[in-house]
Fold these 2 entries.
Entry 1:
Amino acid sequence: MATSPGSSSGSSSSGVSSSASPPGALGAGAALDIRTRSVEQTLVPLVSQITTLINHKDKPKRSDKTLQAIQRVGQAVNLAVGRFVTVGEAIANENRELKEEMSIACIEAKRAGETIAHLTDVANLDHPESDGRITIFTDKTQVVKAARLLLSSVTKVLVLADRIVIKQIITSRNKVLATMEQLEKVSSFQEFVQIFSQFGNEMVEFAHLTGDRQNDLKDEKKKARMAASRAVLEKCTMMLLTASKTCLRHPDCESARVNKEGVFHRMRLALEQVIEIVTDSRPNGENDMAPLSIYTGIKEFKNKVEGLRENLYFPSKENLSTMLELILEHTEDFTDSAYTSHEHRERILELSKQSKMELEHLVSVWMQAQNQRMKDITEDLEVAILKTCQCINELKRELHSAATSMAAELLKYHADHMVLKTLKITGVEGNLEAVAEYTCKLSEQKEQLVEMCRLLRHVSGTEPLEITCIHAEDTFRVTGPQIISAAETLALHPSSKIAKENLDVFCEAWESQLSDMSILLREINDVFEGRRGEKRVYLSLPRPGKHNANLKALKPVKLDAEEQAKIAKLGVELHLLTSDIDSKTEKWEDQENEIVRYGQSMSSMAYSMYLFTRGEGLLKTTQDLFHQAEIFATEATKLVSTLHAFSNQLEDDDKPLLLLEIDRLIPVCQQLQITAKTTVQGKNATFIKVDACIQKTTVVMTILSQILPLCYKLLRKQKAGNGYPISFPMEGEQNSNKNK
């Protein structure tokens, strides 16, 4: 039984709601409110097996095959419950405060499992009527009663186990908060170093617990919120170190104190949000999230309008008008923005006006159909529905275009990080006047980026991406003033190495968020264009069943703290390379170019491997990582073929540089493929293999980061010389050309 969690705490709710006992007939087992994958994997098969027993057909003649099948299901249920109870009892022994409740639930589950096994026993099923024995055939209500008791007790065990996991996370959070309070009050470097070492260990433990929880959540919205909070904590840990050291070195510096307090405040908010998600609660009964976004409003409005085809009398005209008014009210965020172009603003206003007119006409035709007591929609009403939906779709498209084009321009404009570079230089020079001038420029940049995030949220297309936009907006809003206070501190103490290091850390966080925005923008465009529903993931992971014959090979190996720290360090380098490659592929005018597509694919796979180093993402086990590494190496090999085809179209003078990079790439791809396929046994050997896979992936990505700009340069040169673009043959075409 997996004891990783649901999304709520003890008294309020859990991985399954406490009302999860299935009411009435068990065929409707969907009444279970399952919130986590681990609980789902435990309960759903059990519900399915029990439903099979209860829904069997009562035939007068029962073959031996039927009787044996029923017995097998009954025995399978009993054995599964036995294993489940063993785990539950072990958990009870380790947690005294829940031992009594857990033991009672385990006893009930065991008794119910044995009852089901007895009722489905072949010895009893053969001729039950003759000796008056009660079986599944003579009294189905007994099976239903046992099944209800079984699911009720199993659910209770899961709720209690989940409560323990939640308690672990809360306890871990409390330890982190207590140590943070000590760190805030220290007055000597020696004391700070000792406490920070303890703090680092506590943060690693908290990261592991919350990472497991995040991966277990079924709700993508909660997952995204958890990921955002954990990202804040990860980045703030380094900020807390440098900001605290700066404050200790310069205790009388007001800007250093403000800088440090900002970090502690943000970490506390992030810790609080994690607990809100884990316990499924909000302080003071607040609502879950921010105001409605336009994409959500349009989606709901269209559903209502199109619903008229099914039911002419369900929605009210006032309801539709209110929904449209709310959407148009939010479009003012675009029309009032100083960064929206004149053309986009005029088009948005025009489409808003047209949407109102189309809805008014729709309501008129609709009311007419109601007055005539029509049962089906008329042709006029169908046309009005189509026109209203078409108009609102055009408005949605215009808003998307306005937000994404503005974002693309802003990200391109700020890509050189000139303001940050100048702040660092003027800070080291101790030039307070210049620092003041460039902090004003950074504040302007911050306002632009915050506005960009706000508009992107409206067109994000999915709730997880919307939450990512909110997180980005918050990051720019908070990090901007922190960079300013760090720069002011450096300007006041220009010879201070720690003050310089502190400013570097905050600037890196800003640059990292800008890089993440490029990826986010691509995700939003992809969702809008229907290329994918969520984040792009190039995976081909093994699935349970026919491909998993060797279960021992798939057994995940948990890394210890030292190993995790080493892998995490490697992962950071991989993350930086994926950001670098994403920015390089975006420069290509032709995004469908084969080289670009392979580059994007490999970058996305490398990013999923980076997430593995943080205990996040879809790669859950070491086996998943090895399989992903193998697919990555295959993709890189395909890229090599495309690069060779490209080199054949180049002038002789241009070929050597590209061929040199190709020759560097080929052996590393082969090594990675061999490493990923090699079978290993034991924890140490598995860690060495993980380390090798990530290191070799990093080498491939490093070479790729050099190949992409080289190909871009050669392609532009070729275009300038020939006056027409180079064509890249597809994989099949390459093979046919070789055959010729």
Entry 2:
Amino acid sequence: MGVRGLHGFVASSCPHVCTVVNFKELAERHRSQHPGGTPAVVVDAMCCLRYWYTPESWVCGGQWREYYSSLREFVRAFTAVGIKLVFFFDGMVEQSKRDEWVKRRLKNNREIAKIFHYIKSHREQPGRNMFFIPSGLAIFTRFALKALGQETLCSLQEADYEVASYGFQNNCLGILGEDTDYLIYDTCPYFSISELSLDSLDTVMLCRERLCESLGLSLADLPLLACLLGNDVVPEGMFESFRYQCLASCASVRENRDRKGSAIAAVADHISQVLRLHQGEKTLEEMLPLGPNKALFYKGVASYLLPGQKSPWFIQKPKDVVTLDNQLLSMSSDPEPKQEVPMCMDPESKQKLPVGTDPEFNLETPMCTNTEVKQEDPVNMGPEAKHQVTMVSDPELLKVARAQHVQAESYLVYSVMSSGEVECSNSLEDATDQALPSQAFVYRPVRQRVYSLLLGGSGGGSSTGPAVKEWFVYAGNPLRQPDLVRPLQMNIPGGAPSLRQLWLSHEPGAQAQRWDTLLACFDLSSSREELQAVERPFQALCCLLVYLFVQVDTLCLEDLHAFIAQALCLQGKPTVELADLQLDHIDPRAVQLATLLVRGLTTLVLVNSACGSPWDMADFMPWHLFDGKLFHQKYLQSEKGYTAEVLVEQNRSHVTRFHTLKSVVCKACGKESRPIVSRRHWRPHHAGRWGRQGSSSHGTSSGYSRSGHRQHWRDQGPGSRQYEPDQWRRY
């Protein structure tokens, strides 16, 4: 993340850039300088997840109660000294940064493979040096912070720009994160989360003015330096030969520094000693070997310009723009009012289709274009209008979706409706496990029904809506291109309601409609009465378990017992007791089952958001329903054949609820011809030797099962990846 090599350079070559500061003292100074004002720190939440996750156990699916307590203590520490916190989360991956996103996901795959190898070899959790954040942590952290009363925002582009812009425009005390890009932005001070001591509120401030002093640069030169070194927009290798030339011609910086540090100093020296001589007279392409990468380089430099800022390195030409991927890129960041006017294009029009309309999508409904001006968008920082393809034509619905997205109240909904492109990062899944499918495939039929709902194709008939681009990580997916996933029609008693009815209606029956639509997304309409009778928060859990057991036929009765028992025992159990719980050993299958359940909870967030929130989000937050170590304990006990009484720790009320919930799940699964039996009653081959999903071929998923009724995850061909039918045959 950030500028390549800059963090190490600062630590080794100019440590005076780093200064120990105290937040309490900074807040007091801020109040004295701004009477009546509240000192605020804007937090790059994605940089802080590792710092916040303090529980010792991380491989079992997440210690969510402990994590929630950790977040609460973090908030309390700043609130106690009168500091307001504003949290930003990444909301979308920009196209220019997709390659970097893919590179990190593939690297994570290798790390996860090592984790499972260690678990199988040692039957224990690896050390903290192999730490991998639990699945769904970023998503649920948003809701945890909102539950703690914190201002929590989700970005409409890369979060670091919006963080820097917010801090700049709101006179914040500083930015708390761990990204060297914050040394490049000309914004409020940058503080390190990794160096933060919560007890004393001491941390390290990285001073960009001191960095400039060490390098002989001005603040306006830093974006140029960052792009020549390589960042998330400009690949590091693009100017490698240029850096070598700078190093060869600048003998004074080659001494007493490592190779990368010397290159950074040499590039800085070239900027100050050579390029600055022609600043304002020559364009960057006249002074640098930009070649065919000119537009990308300009975009990289411009991406650091906050609202109202300009770069002295850009010579203002008459049109004041360069072209990048058919977009207009301004060379300043003058604030303009936002406008968003969706216009549905006439399919009979001879107007040329907008960029992004791939004929492979086989669109039979008109796409829509938004003419919008974004004040905070570095790709369009001038008054020129940017025409963005959107997937829906209703401006009111798009406005609602956008507002919920920005306020971190939904998940993936706005991405589907605005760009038709979504992503899901790595999960703790064993790529060598032949019996358990990836969560990406298990919950795909649910997502397909949500796409149908959001894109206006939820009525009867065949799926004709546009495909959604999915960047989901799973074994065998090289991520060279997205999976193209088509919407899947829903079967709703009485017909499918419109999105306007679900989101905007206040009629008496609207909530029941939302509930019916949510069940239809999981294809559970036939079990409505049984599920409706279940008390909260177990209603959401039962819905998820029924869907999971119908989809994954290698799940057995012992698994169901473990899922239900841990949810019951979790109620009222003190956090300290959960933290002290010790496990006999770690089972890799239980690790992956935990991932399936937690990713199911994130899918519930998506479905609930899309259906107009028939459930309170708190009903399926993991700190109310799931604890990784507790589930692992119940799994190991259930595998040994422990009775229900022992599994629920001899609690009589839990025993009654255990049998009630088990009966609901088993009855609902029975309606789908899916009996849940004990593993002891399986035939020897039932554990399954099914091949892992996915080859490298590329197509679209129509989303219809061969039976024509229920969409099973194995019946997704001819899908986004080509499947061999025999591999997916049910036993």
